[in-house]
Design brief:
This protein is an alpha/beta fold. 45% of the residues lie in helices and 14% in strands. It starts with 9 loop residues before the first strand and ends with a helix.
């Protein structure tokens, strides 16, 4: 099978200097995307950008001015943004319920700021935000210790929608909560599953972590 491609699409990736962000940038580049690589560590962003012929920018996802600059830079260099991939903080996990809740709140806040900066472009391109969550979305439930990533993420996402964040068109990718380390899905498999969901026009994709997800991701990569 031919892999899904996105020729000429413009993607802004936050956390692009991190392990997963870098893999996602490489996957997007291989499939034709033009890339803006954002990271709070500009050196790491440049390292990623150099390998994908993209533009590196310093980007703190809680800073409105930096988001506006990223959107403007993308527009000037490549054209209006088609996708914003939120990879910053996706690798973090809270040790307590409060820490997990704060991480999730940061992701929601970053999404809102990004919508202010990129919303007009996304409306023009019919694009979307893609939000990755892992342990940041999982608040342990003693009665249900195997509560899945998908269900935990849905619970928080729907709560965010109810509290007034309905204006943001987004895709939510949830994964790897809380499988043992040996069972984690690899970054390239997650990236492939994400692009599979986007190629289908899916705006609510839940990729549960742990058991069975690796084979699903491998099929999606074809």
């Amino acid at each position: 099978m031919i892999k899904r491609s996105f020729p000429g699409k413009v993607a802004l990736v936050t956390g692009g200097g991190g392990q997963f962000g870098r893999v996602l940038c490489q996957t997007l580049s291989q499939r034709g995307c033009k890339l803006i690589v954002g990271d709070c560590d500009l050196t790491r962003a440049r390292e990623t950008a150099a390998g994908v012929q993209g533009l590196a920018l310093g980007l703190d996802v809680t800073d409105t001015a930096m988001w506006i600059n990223a959107a403007s830079s993308a527009r000037d260099l490549f054209g209006p943004v088609d996708y914003v991939f939120h990879c910053a903080h996706q690798h973090e996990e809270g040790r307590t319920t409060d820490e997990s809740a704060r991480l999730w709140a940061t992701q929601i806040a970053a999404l809102e700021i990004a919508q202010e900066a990129c919303g007009a472009d996304l409306a023009r391109t019919r694009g979307t935000h893609v939000v990755f969550v892992s342990n940041a979305a999982w608040i342990p439930d003693g009665a249900r210790p195997l509560w899945s990533a998908a269900e935990a993420a849905k619970r928080h996402w729907h709560k965010a929608q109810i509290t007034g964040h309905r204006g943001v068109l987004s895709t939510l990718i949830a994964y790897d909560v809380p499988p043992p380390k040996a069972g984690k899905t690899s970054p390239d498999e997650i990236a492939a599953a994400t692009l599979w969901a986007l190629s289908r026009g899916t705006h609510d994709a839940f990729v549960p972590g742990g058991f069975g997800v690796a084979s699903f991701c491998r099929r999606a990569a074809r």
